[in-house]
């Protein structure tokens, strides 16, 4: 198991659901939760079939709920047809939400723009008609590389409307990462912006697309559609590039949604695994949307009067499910925020909650921890300096939330009245899996509590046998569920091997270590593979190592994670150069050069926090790098393990000293 195992099961505080909340909740009280659990456990297909019929609009009803004949390549609602965008937009026009605000967009600089469901529908249709006029259609694949904006939601929804499978690339990724994704997915279309605004600065986006395409192998790309965000100067290829507004504005606001099979890939989203190459996680249309909508209603207790705010970027799965699809399918009003939590100051989140009367706020522990520090440094940025009385529910996602941060969030942001839903899930699961239901589940700070109805989460040993409460093991999901990953794009072997290893009885292996307590509450202990979680973002150690060794100065590199107060984990790289080991100023200069290199190869989120140079790396006599020891050294701790199998034990001393 990874280094991030935390001291768990020490937390004894329990917070029952507030009575007022429970009374009005979509799932109310322990009995409400238990009834759904029982229904799903006793007759899973009946349960999922009922949910899918009641919650989605099908253009062709399905007759089979689950097809397991090619497990683990499961098919859900496999002969049904629907359109995801019609379920998110047209459905709201039909049920009286046409003039309801769908999105309140707040720009980095504070400007606010609102669109109703009718307006959003029209924008999506116009853009979809534009794409259609260029010949794009069902089965094509697009890359979306956009800043947080109404346009990003429009682009994703327009693709969904036409049956174009999108793959969104987070704006912080480099041209190299973008290139990898364009070629892997076989995109014929790229949608980007001239620049993005973050923290008062304009950051170019389109140049990265130009660079990526120039790297070769992207011949399938016919157009690059550019959203003019800033009007900054960019290079232009008249044969390929088109302004989004030139394409969309003149089009009709009506575009017939294309009915697709429930299993049609709605999107492919790349995420880090334990090897160097990110995996293209392929999601479905029907099963995915069903879970996006249901979890909005269950976990977030979605109500017509809510103002929902998920602070994630649409470049990550959280932004897909809880910005672009879930809140719209549930007919909510939501905030889309372009900027960062610390600009113009660290009170930004609290001010936005106050200004827009946000009721439901969903963010990451990293953001909370950094805002705790900022509010301690300056009381003006403390949540207590703002009116946060509109809040009724808080959420956390992406990494374990430490009990101290949980308590601060509960007290200072939630005014001790708002339940906190600590939602455990993954890119691969499509939506929440283990989480409290705010009107039903007693909360324990630091635990994501209990499984959602229909989700057969369990802790098992290496042979798939159940592990007793209080003991650690592998977190698995025993039975398939509708929003599960369908495949790794172009790599079915890797899909089977990574997620359904033969020794685990066909269970889905999440890649997290965890334990259950006697109440059935789950405590996540950290990844069991070489995946780090830095600020809630997944990062493969191998990915960073491959980037480092691609630098001309580097002979060898080993990357490990180290616990970090703010970012959860931090990247520490141990590097052997082709030349002699640098010291002093030279080591600092080369360290900076390598950090910038990693930012260019992958993206700034992958930059090592620290680089240490050695004459060698600690290796066994058979040449295997002992990462376990490097993790100890990275933490600044003394190595107490037996090092007799090491070929070169003295190297540990050298690597123990930060540069
Ligand atoms: C971790 C993000 C503890 C976990 C939605 C998982 C969490 C990985 C939690 C998935 C949580 C996510 N408590 N750990 N509430 N939520 N994780 O694919 O290690 O970016 O495997 O999906 O984040 O990260 P991903």
TrEMBL record:
Which post-translational modifications are recorded for this protein? Answer: Acetylated. Deacetylation by the SIR2-homolog deacetylase activates the enzyme.
GO MF term list:
acetate-CoA ligase activity; AMP binding; ATP binding; metal ion binding
Where N6-acetyllysine occurs, the residues are 624
Q: Which residues form the Acetyl-coenzyme A synthetase N-terminal domain?
A: 33-88
InterPro entries tied to this protein: Ac_CoA_lig, ACAS_N, AMP-bd_C, AMP-bd_C_sf, AMP-binding_CS, AMP-dep_synth/lig_dom, ANL_N_sf
Keyword annotations for this protein, in alphabetical order, are: Acetylation, ATP-binding, Ligase, Magnesium, Metal-binding, Nucleotide-binding
Locate the residues binding ATP.
Answer: 398-400, 422-427, 512, 527, 538
Requisite cofactors: Mg(2+)
Locate the AMP-dependent synthetase/ligase domain: which residues? 96-481
EC nos? 6.2.1.1
Q: What class of enzyme is it?
A: ligase
GO cellular component terms listed in the entry, alphabetical order: cytosol
The UniProt entry's GO biological process terms, in alphabetical order, are:
acetyl-CoA biosynthetic process from acetate
* Coiled-coil region(s): none
Q: Domain of life here?
A: Bacteria
Domain AMP-binding enzyme C-terminal, residue spans: 543-624
Residues binding Mg(2+), per UniProt: 549, 551, 554
UniProt family annotation: Belongs to the ATP-dependent AMP-binding enzyme family.
**PANTHER family, per this entry?**
ACETYL-COENZYME A SYNTHETASE (PTHR24095), ACETYL-COENZYME A SYNTHETASE 1 (PTHR24095:SF14)
The record's function comment reads: Catalyzes the conversion of acetate into acetyl-CoA (AcCoA), an essential intermediate at the junction of anabolic and catabolic pathways. AcsA undergoes a two-step reaction. In the first half reaction, AcsA combines acetate with ATP to form acetyl-adenylate (AcAMP) intermediate. In the second half reaction, it can then transfer the acetyl group from AcAMP to the sulfhydryl group of CoA, forming the product AcCoA.
Family annotation (NCBIfam families)? Ac_CoA_lig_AcsA, PRK00174.1
Q: Please give the HAMAP family that the UniProt record associates with this protein.
A: Ac_CoA_synth (MF_01123)
- The molecule here is called Acetyl-coenzyme A synthetase
Q: What is the gene called?
A: acs
């Amino acid at each position: 198991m990874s280094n991030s195992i935390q001291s768990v099961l020490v937390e004894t505080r329990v917070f029952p659901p507030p009575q007022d909340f429970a009374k009005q909740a979509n799932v109310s009280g322990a009995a409400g939760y238990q009834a759904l659990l029982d229904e799903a456990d006793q007759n899973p297909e009946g349960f999922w079939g009922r949910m899918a019929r009641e919650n989605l609009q099908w253009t062709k009803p399905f007759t089979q709920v689950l097809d397991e004949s090619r497990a683990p390549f499961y098919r859900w609602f496999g002969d049904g047809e629907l359109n995801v965008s019609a379920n998110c937009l047209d459905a709201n026009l039909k049920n009286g939400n046409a003039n309801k605000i769908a999105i309140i967009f707040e720009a980095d600089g504070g400007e606010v723009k609102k669109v109703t469901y009718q307006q959003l529908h029209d924008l999506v249709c116009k853009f979809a008609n534009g794409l259609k006029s260029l010949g794009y259609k069902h089965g094509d694949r697009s890359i979306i590389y956009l800043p947080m904006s109404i346009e990003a939601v429009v682009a994703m929804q327009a693709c969904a409307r036409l049956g174009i499978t999108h793959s969104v690339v987070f704006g912080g990724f480099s041209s190299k990462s973008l290139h990898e994704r364009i070629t892997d997915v076989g995109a014929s279309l790229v949608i980007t912006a001239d620049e993005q605004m973050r923290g008062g600065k304009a950051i170019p986006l389109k140049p990265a697309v130009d660079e990526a395409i120039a790297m070769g192998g992207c011949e399938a790309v016919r157009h690059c559609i550019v959203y003019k965000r800033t009007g900054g100067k960019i290079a232009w290829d008249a044969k390929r590039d088109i302004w989004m507004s030139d394409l969309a504005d003149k089009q009709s606001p009506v575009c017939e949604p294309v009915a697709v099979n429930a299993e049609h890939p709605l999107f492919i989203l790349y995420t880090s695994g334990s090897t160097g190459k990110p995996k293209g996680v392929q999601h479905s249309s029907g099963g995915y949307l069903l879970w996006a909508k249901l979890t909005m209603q269950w976990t977030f207790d979605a109500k017509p009067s809510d103002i929902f705010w998920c602070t994630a970027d649409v470049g990550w799965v959280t932004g897909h499910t809880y910005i672009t699809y879930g809140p719209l399918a549930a007919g909510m009003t939501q905030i889309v925020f372009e900027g960062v939590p610390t600009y113009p100051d660290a009170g930004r989140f609290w001010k936005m909650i106050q200004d827009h009367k946000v009721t439901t706020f969903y963010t990451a522990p990293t953001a909370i921890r950094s805002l705790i520090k900022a509010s301690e440094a300056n009381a003006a940025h403390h949540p207590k300096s703002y009116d946060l009385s509109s809040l009724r529910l808080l959420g956390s996602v992406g990494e374990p939330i430490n009990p101290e941060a949980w308590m601060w969030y509960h007290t200072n942001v939630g005014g001790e009245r708002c339940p906190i839903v600590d939602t455990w899930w993954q890119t691969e699961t499509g939506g929440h899996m283990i989480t409290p239901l705010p009107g039903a589940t007693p909360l324990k700070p630091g635990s994501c509590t209990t499984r959602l109805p229909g989700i057969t989460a369990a802790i098992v040993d290496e042979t798939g046998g159940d592990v007793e409460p209080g003991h650690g093991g592998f977190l698995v999901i025993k039975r398939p569920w509708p929003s599960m990953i369908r495949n790794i794009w172009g790599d079915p072997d890797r899909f089977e091997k990574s997620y359904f290893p033969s020794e685990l009885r066909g269970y889905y292996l999440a890649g997290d270590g965890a334990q259950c307590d006697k109440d059935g509450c789950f405590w996540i202990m950290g990844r069991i593979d070489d995946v780090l979680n830095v600020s809630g973002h997944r990062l493969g150690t191998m990915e960073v190592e491959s980037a480092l060794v691609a630098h001309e100065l580097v002979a060898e590199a080993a990357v490990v994670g180290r616990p970090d107060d703010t970012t959860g984990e931090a990247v520490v790289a141990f590097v052997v150069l082709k030349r002699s080991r640098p010291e002093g100023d030279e080591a600092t200069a080369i360290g900076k050069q390598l950090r910038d290199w990693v930012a260019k190869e992958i993206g700034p989120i992958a930059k090592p926090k620290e680089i240490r140079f050695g004459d060698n790396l600690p290796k066994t006599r058979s040449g295997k790098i002992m990462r376990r020891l490097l993790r100890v050294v990275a933490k600044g701790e003394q190595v107490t393990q037996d090092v007799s199998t090491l070929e070169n034990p003295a190297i540990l001393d050298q690597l123990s000293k930060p540069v």
